[in-house]
């Protein structure tokens, strides 16, 4: 069965899109640790990060770097943190999280945003993205 992220790629589930290329997509995490928490995924559905072929792995890292640069311009923070977990969704995704404190990278800490706030945030990050 297609992962929830494949359904997002195919347009069957909505997302707050931040950036897209032929092979990768970035969108806001719907249950963010911190404002601006973004997920970067390969369009090819693979469960585990280290099972990606070398080219897609390197491409995902470079795409994530560009998204992180845009994110840091859009959301005031000390730096962008990155982590890969995948215990909930079996489709590779890089978490990019604007950090001000160590708590921001902890996956028990969540912030609440309205749909309007999500939309505005995605547009602001997107405006800084240089693909
Ligand atoms: P994990 O697989 O543990 O790395 O976590 C999966 C992440 O995906 C969580 O942070 C969720 O909040 C996020 N997530 C799950 N479904 C969606 C969705 N439909 N749109 C955006 N983010 C999602």
Largest sheet: 5 strands, antiparallel
Rough outline: globular
- Biggest sheet: strands side by side, in what order? 1-2-3-5-4
Number of helices: 3
Plain-language structure description:
This protein is of the alpha+beta class and 131 residues long. It contains 3 helices and 5 strands; from the N terminus they run H-E-E-E-H-E-E-H. It has helices at residues 4-9, 54-74, 115-128; strands spanning 17-20, 24-28, 38-42, 79-83, 94-99. A 5-stranded antiparallel beta sheet has the order 1-2-3-5-4. Strand 1 and strand 2 (24-28) form a beta hairpin. The mean pLDDT is 97. Bound molecules: adenosine monophosphate (AMP). The site of adenosine monophosphate (AMP) has 13 residues, from loops. Adenosine monophosphate (AMP) is lined by residues 4, 13, 15, 29-31, 39, 85-89, 93.
């Amino acid at each position: 069965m297609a992962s929830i992220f494949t359904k997002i790629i195919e347009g069957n589930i909505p997302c707050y899109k931040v950036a897209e290329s032929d092979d990768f997509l970035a969108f806001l995490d719907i249950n963010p640790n911190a404002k601006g928490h973004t997920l970067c995924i390969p369009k090819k559905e693979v469960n585990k990060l280290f099972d990606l072929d070398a080219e897609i792995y390197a491409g995902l890292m470079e795409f994530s770097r560009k998204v992180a640069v845009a994110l840091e311009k859009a959301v005031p923070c000390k730096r962008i943190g990155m982590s890969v977990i995948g215990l909930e969704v079996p489709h590779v995704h890089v978490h990019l999280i604007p950090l001000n404190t160590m708590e921001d990278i902890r996956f028990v800490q969540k912030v609440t945003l309205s749909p309007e706030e999500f939309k505005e945030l995605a547009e602001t990050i997107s405006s800084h993205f240089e693909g």
